[in-house]
Each structure stands twice: as C-alpha cells, then as structure tokens.
Amino acid sequence: MWKKISFNVKITSVLRGSDKMNLPNYKEAMKRNKKYDTVTYSIDKELLNKYSGKKYFLKTYGCQMNEHDSENIKAMLEELGFIETDDYEKSDLVLLNTCSIRENAHNKAFGMLGRLKHLKESNPDLIVGICGCMAQEEGVVKSILNDYKWINFVMGTHNIYRLPYILDQAIETNNQEIEVFSKEGDLVESIPVKRDNGFKAWVNIIYGCDKFCTYCIVPYTRGGERSRKKEDILNEIKTLKELGYKEVTLLGQNVNAYGKDLYSDYGLGELLEEVAKMGIPRITFMTSHPWDFTDKMIDVIAKYPNIMPYIHLPLQSGSSKILKLMGRRYTKESYLELFDKMKKKIPNVSISTDIIVGFPGETEEDFNETLEVANYCKYDNAFTFIYSPRENTPAAKLKDDVSLEEKERRLYLLNDTVNKYFLENNKKLEGKAVDVLVCGLSEKKKDNYYGYTFNNKLINFTGNTKIGDIVKVKVTSAKTWSLDGEICE
Ligand code: 5AD
Ligand code: SF4
C-alpha cells in the first residue's frame, strides 16, 4: 500500500545559477551557458528494489528524443523494483512523458489526465507523474499547481536522472513534488537504459537547441546545445555492436551542431565517419537543420556503405520571406542548393521533410512557393503541420492573419501534392531487391513481417526469416506509405 495522498504542495526545484526561482522560467531557459560538466549517474542502494512488485505504466508522446528518454525512465523505474504494464487501470504508477511541440500534443496529455483523475478517485493510492517537455512550460506547471493538485510529481527534461529520488520523495512525503530546472545542468552519463528492441538503438549525441526558430518551443523546453563527448558516444556504440545491434540512430534536436560546443575540428561528419568505421551495419541520424549541414557530412554519407542514404531535411516553408520570419537562417535558394548537392553526391538518397502551413503572414503566393519546392524536391516522405502558436515563442506574438479554414485548405493541398511523390518514388522500386531490417510481425497479417529498407521505407513482406535479421526482399508492389514484397530465395 502507498501512503494516503494528501494535497500539500511542496516545490523542490533545484535551480542552477539562481536561488530565486523554483518553477520553470522562460527568461532563464533562454539563457545559454556554455559551461557544464559530465557526471556519472548513480542511485542510493536503499532505493534499489524498494518498490518491488509495484506496476508502472509509461505513456510517451512526441519525438524520438522522448522515446529514448522513456527507455532511460523505464530502466530507472525497474531499478526501483517496478514492473512494466500496458494496462494503466491496473498500475500503481502512471507516468506521462509529454510533448509541447503543437497544441494537439498538449490536448492528448490533458485528455489522459482527465481519465487519470477518475481513476485516482476510485484508487487514491495511484501515483501520477508528469515529465517531458510540458513539464518545462511555465503555463502548464502553473495549471498543475492550481488545478491538478492530485498529480503527485512533476519532473523536467533536464533532470530525468533524478526520477528515483523525486518519485520516492513524492511517495514518502505525500506532497506534490515539482522539480523542474529552468536551465540545463551537467550532462549525465551512464543513466541505465531499457531499450525497446535488441537490434535498433537510439544514441544521444547532442542535447538541446540554440537555433530559436521563432515558432518553436524546443529551445525553451530542452535547453542549450550540449554535445556528449565523442569517447562516451563511441563506447556506447561499441557496446551496442558487441550486443549484436544492427542499426543505430544518432539522436539530437539538431545533430548538425554536434561538437561545436566541445571541439574546434570535430563535428557530425567526423563522428559519423568514426561510427561508420566501427562496422555497425546501419547508421542514421536525426534531426538535421539545413543551416549546419556541411560538405564533409555529405561526403561521409556518400562514402560509407553502412550510413543509410536517408536524410530528414526540414524545409518548413518554401518562401524566403516566411523562412526569414521563422528565423530559419536559410533561403529557398540555399535550401535547394543543399538539396541538389545531396541528390548529386549521395547515390539513391531518400530525403524527407517537415513543412508548416499557415504561419502568420503566409500569403497565397508564399504557400504556392512551398508547393513549388515540394514539386521540385519530390520528397520520399513529408510531415506536414498547421502552424500552432506556442507559449512565449516570438511567432506567438505575430498577428495570425490566416484563418483556420484557409490553413486547413493549404494543408490538404500540400498533402495532396507530397503524397503523389511518395507513390511515384516507391513505384521505382517495384521489381527490385532491397535490403531490409526485419522489425516485427505485421499487424494486419500475422504471418507477414514488416521492416525498413536501407532508405528507411516501410515494407511488409512474406518469407522465412527472424526479427533482427537483414534480408534481401523483392518489392512486389508499391503503395503511398509502404511497399509490399517477398524474401528473395
Ligand atoms: N507549429 C506547427 N508545427 C511545428 N513544428 C515545430 N513547432 C511547430 C509549431 N509551433 C514542426 C516543425 C518541426 C517538427 C518537429 O514540428 O515542422 O520540424
Ligand atoms: Fe515534442 Fe520537441 Fe519535446 Fe520532442 S523535444 S517531445 S518534439 S517538444
């Protein structure tokens, strides 16, 4: 049994550089402090298995960064003795690892909180925690303090290594614990990890973002750019290789900035090259900002056969006027120059993108320029969004003069445009044999497998194999979002 829940609120934020604040604070979050140390994770022995047998349910929203944080969170909870369950109604602890990127991510998390409130009314012993990007938002934490006093703890993105202590404190004291560092602190190595699968792994190479695109909340929720030391990254990948991992994704909000804060002559290109030489069969990276994409990176991707010929290159808008308002640091012309260079130098490269429609001030002509770029680039995949104003971002202060109806029309038109190229590109693979990493059994037909090609295309296929293998598959037919195939004999 947990102790009975009381509704006291105690704020235990440990802040670096200031003793005034104890809640997320955007002014602090905007500051960039280039000094940090690397420290090693540890946990007090008394906490190990303290909650043996208790069940936890962890729900992850948002990007790969959050997915990977959740792999750390799971491992820490399991050190405490918790066992994972996929049924939140039967769990002792529910933790939401949240996302702030657009309003609908918020709405999903708040919707889940509505269900949890009911659950907690029938089971007051249930412990509920919030972490991830929403925990870094001033407005969200204020609302939790005022209207969600039944939530047991809130933990920010900069201190997930403190989870065992925050959770233990919340249970022991019955207080609402809120520990959010407004600014990033030291870089913590050796946080335990429970990877979601045994053949594909995320590897963080850089945390945070200093680009401050005007629409984006990430520089506030994830802090300044901090690269992990190359030795720490290479050691992690060496271990993954020894464990038989087939694919690693080098991860960061802006991986192209890797190394700038640590080294004068070592960046993503050099890191990719060293990783490629280690011999992991597949290496990829995300997410890239076009501004930091160097020729060295392109050359390395082209040279090494184990670097996947797949690049995610967010466009955001095809209008230089809107790109300037977005603070993207490139123009339509310089983006296209980079795009052409990639296509020319990297054989059979697949390029995907992100595009926002309905940014404040986007006219019909601006939008048409986006369509033009989409028609020119013929992307292999595109994630398209309606602009969503985010708290405290500069764009949120701009006059939003595009009606929702118009934004929806533009999104529809854009999707129609990009989708036809997905199919066109996939059709080119019909009849060809492609390398596929087998990822699981297909949901629709249980005797079929699904996996990803070397260009990161989803393929469903038949034949004899096992999950985690890399096999040759003949593409039998192409669809808009996937391929069908059969294993080559
Ligand atoms: N509104 C809409 N889309 C956004 N993105 C980031 N911030 C916003 C916002 N405020 C999109 C961008 C980014 C992707 C991860 O999410 O396209 O590349
Ligand atoms: Fe969402 Fe961005 Fe946070 Fe990822 S980093 S969870 S996309 S807000």
Protein described:
The protein is α/β, with parallel strands linked by helices and about 500 residues long. It has 3 domains: about 150 residues, 3-Layer(aba) Sandwich (Rossmann fold); about 240 residues, Alpha-Beta Horseshoe (pyruvate-formate lyase- activating enzyme); about 55 residues, OB fold (Dihydrolipoamide Acetyltransferase, E2P) (Beta Barrel), CATH 2.40.50. About 30% of the residues lie in helices and about 20% in strands. Helix 12 runs parallel beside helix 13. The chain is globular and about 60 Å long. Bound molecules: 5'-deoxyadenosine (5AD) and iron/sulfur cluster. The site of 5'-deoxyadenosine (5AD) has 12 residues, from strand 16.
Structural class: alpha/beta
The mean pLDDT is 92
- This entry's quaternary arrangement is single chain
Q: Roughly what percent helix? A: 25-40%
Tally of discrete structural domains:
3
Q: What gap, in angstroms, lies between the N and C termini?
A: 57 Å
